[in-house]
Structures are given as structure tokens and as C-alpha cells.
Fold this protein.
Amino acid sequence: MREAVIVETVRSPGGRYKRGGLAQTRGDEIGIQVLKGLMEKVPQVKHEDVDDVICGCSFPEGEQGMNLGRVIALGAEFPVTTSGMTVNRFCSSGLQAIADATAKIGAGWSDIIIAGGCESMSHIPMGGWIFRPHPDWGDLPMTYVSMGVTAENVAADYGITREDQDKMGLESNRRAHEATKKGLWKDQIIPIDAWKYQKDRDGQWVKKTAVFDMDDGVRWPVTLENMAKLKPPFKQGGSVTAANSSQMTDGAAFTMIMSAEKADELGLNPIAKLTHYAVVGNKPEEMGVGPLYAIPKVLKLAGLKIKDIDLFEINEAFAAQAIYCCRELGIEKRYWKGEVNPNGGAIAIGHPLGCTGAKLSCQLLHEMKRRKVKRGIVSMCIGGGMGAAGIYEML
Amino acid sequence: MSYKIKKAAIIGAGVMGATIAAHLANAGIESVMLDIVPPFDPSEADLKKGLTKESKAWRNSFAINGLNGTVKSRPASFYSKKFASMITIGNLEDDLDLLKDVDFLLEVVVENIKIKQDLFAKVLKITKPDCIIATNTSGIPIKEISSNMSEKDKERFLGVHFFNPPRYMKLVELIPDETTKKEIVDYMTYFLEDVVGKGVVVCKDVPNFIANRIGVFDISNAVKTMIDKGLTIPELDAIIAKVLGRPGSAICGTIDLVGIDTGYHVMKNLVEAVPDDEMIDTFKPPEFMDKMVKNKWLGNKTRGGFYKKTKDEKGKRVKLALDYKKMEYVPFKKPKYESVKEAGKTEGGFDDKLKSLFYSEKDIAGEVVRGYLCRNFIYSANRIPEICDTVYQVDNTMKWGYNHRKGPFETWDAVGIKESVEVMKKLKMKIPKKITEMLKKGCETFYTKKEDGKYYYDFDKKDYVKMEDNPKIILLPDLKAKNKVIKKNVGASLVDIGDGVACLEFNTKMNAIDGDIISMMYDSCDIVEKDFAGMVVANHGTNFSVGANIFQVLIAVQNAEWDILDKLIYELQYANMRMKYLEKPVVTAPAGMALGGGCEISIHGQRCQPCGETYMGLVEVGVGVIPAGGGCKELMVRCTEGLPEGTAEVLNMQPIYEKVLMNIGQAKVATSAVEAMELGYIRKTENVSLSRDHQIWDAKELVLGMAKTHKKKKPDMIPVMGESLMGIAHAVLYNMKHGNYMSDYDEHVTMKLAWVLSGGQCMEGTFVTEDAILDREREAFLSLAGEQKTQDRIMHMLTKGRPLRN
């Protein structure tokens, strides 16, 4: 196998669902602008040198339909010869895209691939525009279960208290606020010319653009007292609330991967490589426990122990499942030491579904570079009952 | 008519001003609502929010808060929250220009004559010369407010006094000054009655007008009676209560609602305003009320007045009542009076029950009622002609403004004038001369019916005078008395309401739908098709219909008479279909509650003329069944009709059918006719009658209009989602059940509903017949009716009056 290396990784800022900075911008447009931003950061690579664009997307329909990978490649002015595809493994789609690209390059089938994810949750509803569960499945809808209900199941079945969930919710926001204040995101964020539909003086609707360059979901200051007042929407008497769940978010993130030889030839300094990747299935009705199975599986593949990993990004789909996974993996203390989700997670800066795997990878790699550490893991639970995990090694 | 109010201005955005603006919006009138710029500086918290002394949001904050409060108010002030956009807000310094084009300006500011005069001086410079100018004062004489106005302005100035809450209280007092143009009084009467849907009483310009003069006396009289007779607060409220036709909150509960301070000040003001009133001592607030105001025990708004709701050590809710002698709260115990109980059980109507209590010697309650009512009677009689000239004005005012079931003179008629005068003599009360004269003339009631209509006794003319008929008020009982019944049975009648239009009226208890009503529906359709221009379905009941008679259903189920039940449902379905496809126009006119079967009949009219206050919904799941009188079917029609040809086959109908599923599955009841349109029960193109009095006339006019070009409707075909809907329902309900929002049985019932709505095992976008859905309705209904949990739900509803969640 050839070595496939990452030379650059970027993301758009996360825009809050319906009310945030990207709420009126089409999903494909966000993807196009991030691709353009990535290409500008690596001027050594010419557009025609990029073989393929692989885009993760959880609800690839409507404006993010028609094979989003191909649409945004053309939109970002790649030549017609650059191919494109869309992959969907729900919340791990972005990581899956990077894994697929790495494997393709490793196999020698491609030299340069851009992989990542793109999702506008403001525009395409969860469940998609046309939701058609199988009528013969009766009252066992399995993979169609609402994500909130699965989080309540995890909280109830494994005894994750409301207090613990809220504490993680607060910590996530605190970390994201600190990171924003320190300007830690600067190197990874591509500012977006976001669309805004406004009424002009004559009362006619017109499209304007405004630069959007900061995650806008961070809620700070917040207090545990205020968080405790929120009602759990998914279950009467439940514990999962807006303050301890991931935010619905719009965004895109892309990574450029190429063979080590190609990087050398172009004079590029590789940052890291994805050494191993694993996906595993679990019960749909408690989909949140996915990382608990995926991380051991990927560690086994790599012949590593969890202590060999310096930094983690474990998606905070819900605090309930994130806490449970950390607890069972024996890394809950490391979470509080800042070695898991060091700059805050999806509770604060959002979970743009198909983009999340690419976004977390981007965040992890930049933070590993800053901390000068060697190995990191990106992992997440996946709707329908799965977990995915990937190991990155810095070069 | 030279006046026309298209746009109004409300000055003062307090609760009253904002809720009046809201009801004008309900009537389709846009308005401008202005209030003062806050006379203080923004607080630290305001500044943090970005408000500054100059910012528009700060300068308009009174009006903004008024409007926001109204949008959230309960009971709702708007028919639909969307109507809030019909109100433009501003302040009295920057936005006076907005008043330039208004046709009607109503002042609803603080009760201070100087402030009102200054305000009018300011706005009269801006408004159009023909803009009608009014004050909503509840007591200040109109001529004092207008004393500084020019003669020209006085001509278009009058008092327009709404009652709180304006959407729900029928009364508006209209108080012209001597200088007000008659045309304006006439136009405003028309506007308030026909457009805004209110009941107008024209008053004389005297302190407190009619309602708050008689009403405040009524309350003061009750409180004084309580003190004189040594009753406790709960005792008073147990006597002067429902049996006398008073609202459920009775006397003290009502004052708690209004506010002790408000009541106290109104009493005090009246003492100053009418120094020559013979009952002035009664108006003086008792000592304990002074203390209550000082202690700030002001009623519900301070969570404690005459009554107080609190929690004991165990956290259990307890109700306390004030012991006004010791000025402390003691546990509330519902007092029981044999006489009150007996009155309640007296056979006959309201009058008989009232009479029973009035003459009862069983316990103190009879004595209290006699003293209290006789003082009310005499006081009211003595106020004519001081506050108005006729008895019916006083009666209407108390019914419409204070929610009394009968006004004082009607109540007097009920207990008998002659007999009560004997009681008054025994109590050593001074009988008004006009009453003695009246009795001497042999006139023993204030109201009487003659062949040509209703008459009232006029004190000035000393004789009966005919009450004017309003052609827009069609009264079915009057028509029935005039032999206008075309056909009737125990449950319903078909009445000739003139001009070739017949009206189908329900007569069962709470207008519950039963076999009699259904058979009358068929008969009426046959008769109307043959001999009439069209039909209105309406009644005067508080509720159009609360639904099917579930007792009948339960009996049939318990006797396993499935064929009978199937036939009953079938007959309701096809009675509705008969109306829908009649060769003559049929207009339904729901008002009040139109639930279950009542909703099904309402939506099967070819057109609908709902009253603004229509509370409509298909609530069958509450008793464990699904709508089976065509309700599912017609709501499916309603929500899919109007789709252009060729679209239903390719359209994603999921949001449409989810709406239908949730409306019925969660038993959603609209809180107004407009909300019923938003939920899909009534077509958005229908007109709403704001006045319940005029509703039957409106519906009749609609029938006559339709009759000119009427053609029998072509059968509807309904686009359905087939099996896809079953999958969606399973997934949606699974989540609701696991979130504890639904019981297993709720899910079961709702799945049956989804099965009906799916239309069958077919492809999405298939068109099915109405009959196909009606068959499914019946099948689902019968299968659910056979289940124990459904029968438990029906039984619970019959015995407890509320739904069971099992």
C-alpha cells in the first residue's frame, strides 16, 4: 500500500439552524466556497490535478442532491475531468469520505483527492423531504427512531443523570468560548460569503451577501441553574434537553489527501495521515453507544491501546451518549483534563450531520499540531445504530 | 351611509386598548395603536438589551408590550395570532402622522379628565375632519371630557365603552353627548353590531352609565347583605350564585378576578359622583375592604383576595377564604343550603328554580335572596329615567356586560312583581311609585308577548310598547310559536325562516347527535329539495353540538348490537352526504362547540357560515374511537381539494396527511372560526359572522345568494397516500409513545385512524371515492368500539365528563 497523506484541512464556520449565519445559504454553495478556500490554501495543486471530490452528506436531496460531490466540484471551477461522488453513512459520512479517499490513494487508484462533508440542516430537514418508512415493519420502526428518543434510552438504560449531562453541556460551551476567544479556529476556518434575503426600500425581496467567519452556536455565559430549567422535548419526564444535545448546524469541511510521493513532488509538507478506520453496528434504539464499540475495534486494527491515543474528538450528539462512551472507555477523567473534545464539541459548535466527520477531523488535526502530539482519534455515533472511529497520526 | 370605518386608531395600549384593537382586527379592521413614550429612562437591563432613550424600540415600548401581551393573552384576544399584523404600533410623539387617515379614533388611556382632554386637543389637529372620535371611559361624563372641544368636533364625539375582555363580552355602551350627530350614533350602532358583532346599548351621559351603575350597586348590595346577615364569604357566594343566574365565580370570586382595588375605587368614585343617590350608603366600601386594599390583598393578581389558593405543608393544594371579621384566611368549606339544593332540583326552567329559592323559608338563603333581589329591583326601577328610559336597556346591559343570566327586570318578572311587592312591604321597603301605578293598571309583568311580537312596559307612557324587531335577528323559538315549523320530532325541527329558506334546528340535550336528529336530516333534505330554495343548519344553543350521543353508542356496544350500530353510523354518514350533494344549497352555521359529530355535520354543508366564536374539532379519540360520520373523509377532502390537476399524483402529501392525522389523533379543537380554517376544518374562503345574533340571517342570505346559480356538486375523489402513510404513522407514533406522549392504546387508536386515512393498499397519489373512506371509517369505528379500553373511555366520559387516558 502506498502512503496517503493529508496536506491541508479546512472547514466553514458552523451556522446555527434556521437562525444562524448560514441559514439562508444553500448547502451546495457552502461546499463550493469551502472547496475554493481549500484550493487557495494549497496553490501548488492545480485544479486539474485533483482526481476526485468525495463529499459526505446525510440527506443528499433537494439543493444538496443530484450527486453533491460532482455538483460542488463543478461549482468550485474544477475541470470537467475531475470526478465527484457523494457518500452517506449519516453522521460519519465526512470521516467515511476521508477514509475512502485514503484507501483509494493507498491502492494506487488516485493521486490527489479532496474529501469531506457538506450539510445544510436549515434547508433539508432531518429525515429528508420525503420520509417513507417501510409500512410492513409495524411498530418496530428500528432505524427510523428519533435521535432524541435514542438519547433518552441511553440516559435511562445506563443511568446518565440530567446533572452530568448539563455539566458536559456547560463545559462544551465554556471550551468553545475559550477557543474562540484565543483565536484557535483562525487557521481552519474559511469565511463564507453567506446569503441573506432582505427587503429593500421598495419592499422587494433581494439577495445580499455578508461575510460569516465565526461559529455562532456558542452560548456563553450559561449557568447550570438556567440549563436545569429547560424542558426535555423528546420524552415527558426525560433528561435530554436543548442544552445538553448537539445543535443542528449548517457547514462544510474538506481535506486534501494525496500520495506521499505526490506531496513530495509538489514540495508540500504533509500534516498527518489516517492510519486506520472502523465502523461497527449496534442497536438502533440506543444508537449513541456506537463509539464504545468502534473505538476498541479501530484500536485493535492498529494494535494500539487507548492510552496510546493523545487526543480525542468524540462527537457530542448528546451529552448522555458521549458521557456514557467516555465512562465505559475509561476516558472520562481525560475528558475533564481536556484530552477529549479539547475546544468544545457539537453541543457548542454544532453537528452538521454529514459534514461532522470531516469537521471533527479538521478540528483534531489543527489541535494536535498546536499541541505537538502524535495520535488522535475521531469517533461518532451514527443514526440507525452504528459507530465509526478513525486514527490519525501526525507526520 | 356617509361614514365607513376602514381603519381605526386606539390610543393607549394597556390591556383594554390592546384587546379592543385585537377584536377590531378580528372584525377585519386595521388599526394604529399609539401609547406614550416611557416617561422614565431605560434601566440598566434595558440598556444592555441595546435600548436607548432614542431607539424606536424604547420609544414604542409601551405599545410593543401591549401588543405582545395581547398576542399571549388567555383566553385569546385574537381569532388568530396572525391578525396581530393588522395593528401598527407607535408612540404619541413620533407617530402622530399615522392618525391622518383613520376613520375612527378611540381613547383608552388612564381615567384622568385632564389627560384625556389634552390628548384630544393633540390628536384632533391631525385626524380627518370626518373621523369619529370616541372615549372608552367607564364613568367620566362625556360632556366633561369634550368641554374644551369646538362645536364641530363635539358633533363627532361620543363614548364607546367596551367591556373586558372585549372579544368575549357582548356589551358596548354607546354614550352620545347632546351635541353628537344622530347619524354618527346610528352608524356606530351599525358598526358595533354588524361589523364588530357586539350588543349595543345607548346610554345617557350620567356617571358610570348603566352597567357600572347597576352592576356596582348589585355587588355593593351583595357585600352589604353579607355583612348585615352575618354571612361568611363562601356563604354569600353559595347563595348569590348559579341558581340566581350568576357566573360561576359568583360575587366575591368575580371581585377577586377584577381586583379588589378596582372594585374599591369604583365604589368610592360612585359615592362622590352621585351624592344624591338614595342608596349612597350601600356604595360606601366596608371597613374590611379598606384593610384589604392597604394590605394589598387585591385578588387573583396578588394571589389572594377574598379567596386564596395555596399549598399546605404536604404540598397539597388548598383553598382558603377570608374571615373578614378577624381579617385572616381560614380553610374554605363549601357551605350547603337546603333551599338552594331544593331550588336546583325544582322541575321546570330557570324561572321556576329562581322562584323556589326566592320564596323559600327553609333556611337563611331564601331570606338573603329576598332582601338582596328586592333592593336590586327597587334600585333599578328608581334609575329610570335617570340613566335610561326603558327596562330592556337595563336588562340587556346586565346580561351582556356582567354575564347575568337575566337582567333585574326579567328576574323580577320571574319571581312575580305582584307577589314580590308583598315581600317588599313585609321588609318595610319603599315601593317605587311607578311600580304601584303599573300594578294598579293591571300590568303585572315588564315584558309580554302579543300576536305581533314582544312588548315591554314603558314607565313614561305607562303602557306596553312594542319592541322593535331587528330583521337580522332570526329567532327560531319565535318562528316556532308562529307555526312556522315545517316538520319536527323529539330531537330536531325544520323551521321556515322565510324567503323560501328552511332551518334545521337541533333540540336534544347539549344538541348531541342521535337517531332523531339523523332522521330529521333526511326528512329535511327531502322537503327542502322539493319545496324550498335551500337550507340552513343552525340553532341558538350555547353549543352547535357537542357530538354524538355516546350513551346510545355504549348501550349498543354492551348489547352487542353491532348491526344496529353499523346502521346508525351509516345513516349519519349518508345524512351528511345527502346534505353535501343536495340539489339545493345547504349552509351550516356552527357556533360555540362543534365537536365530533357536530363538527362532521358542520363540515358537510356545501358552504359554512361560522360564528367567530366557534370551537371546532374531531375529538372522538378521547372516547377511543375515530370520527365515523364522514369526519375523516371530509377533512381529507378539505385538506386536498384545490390541488391543480396532475399534482396530487406526484406531490409529497406527507405534511398534509400528517396534519389530518394529528388534528384527529390529538383531538385538536380550534379556539375560533379562523383557527378552524387554519386547521383545515373550514374553507379559508368562508365568511365569519362576528355577531351570533345575526348568524342565522347571514347564513340565510348566503343560501339565497347560492340558490340563484346553484348546481349539484360533482362527486369528490380523494388523493391518498396508500401504504406509505402507514409507515409514516408507525414511525411518528413510535417516537411519541417512547417519549411518553402517548399510551399504547392511544397508539392503537391512532393507527386505526392512519389506516382509514391511508385509503387502502394502494400507490401514493391514487384517487379513491368518498364511499371507500366511509367504509373504512365504519370498519375502524366498530372494531374500536368492541375493545374494552374504548368502552372504558366512553364510560369514563359519561360518568366523569372528561376523557380517560388508558
